Amino acid sequence: MNMILQNLYLRENGICEKGTSALAEALAINTNLQNLDLRNNGICEKGASALSEALKTNMGLQNLDLCGK
């Protein structure tokens, strides 16, 4: 488990659905990450749903930015 990473900025990286699902899996068990910037990554309904499920168990994330396409 990550004990150091608190900020992750991945804006405009073309993450899309597959990458978002992988991030959601990590978020479900990583409670140290506080800020996640996913702006302009083409995240659609499936990816947003995966993130939503992960955040049900992750109480550490304080800021999640999903703005843009």
Automatic annotation (TrEMBL):
GO terms for cellular component: cytosol; nucleus; perinuclear region of cytoplasm. Keywords: GTPase activation, Leucine-rich repeat, Repeat. SUPFAM superfamilies: RNI-like. One of its GO terms (biological process) is nucleocytoplasmic transport. Transmembrane segments: none annotated. GO terms for molecular function: GTPase activator activity; small GTPase binding. This is Uncharacterized protein. It comes from Jimgerdemannia flammicorona.
